[in-house]
Amino acid sequence: MKQLLILLCVLTVISCKNETPEPVSEAPKLPFVWEGANLYFMLTDRFNNGDTTNDVNFERTANAGKLRGFEGGDLKGVTQKINEGYFTNLGVNAIWMTPIVEQIHGGTDEGTGITYGFHGYWTSDWTAIEPNLGTKSDLKELVEAAHKKGIRIVLDAVINHTGPVTDQDPVWPENWVRTEPQCTYQDYETTVACTLVKNLPDIKTESNEHVELPNHLVEKWKSEGRYEEELAELDAFFTRTGYPRAPRFYIMKWLTDYITEFGIDGYRVDTVKHVEESVWQEFKTECDFAFSEWKKNNTAAILDDNDFYMVGEVYNYGISAGKAFDFGDKKVNYFDKAFNSLINFELKWNVAQLSKEAVFSKYSDILNGDLKAYGILNYLSSHDDGQPFDASREKPFKTATMLLLTPGTSQVYYGDESARALQIEGTDGDATLRSKMNWSAIDNDDTTQNILRHWQKVGQFRAKHPAVGAGVHQMISETPYVFSRTYSKDTINDFVIVGLDLSKGEKEIPVSNVFQDGDMLHEAYSNQFVKVNNGQVLVLSEYDMVLLEKK
Question: What is the value of pTM for the model shown?
Answer without folding.
Answer: 0.94
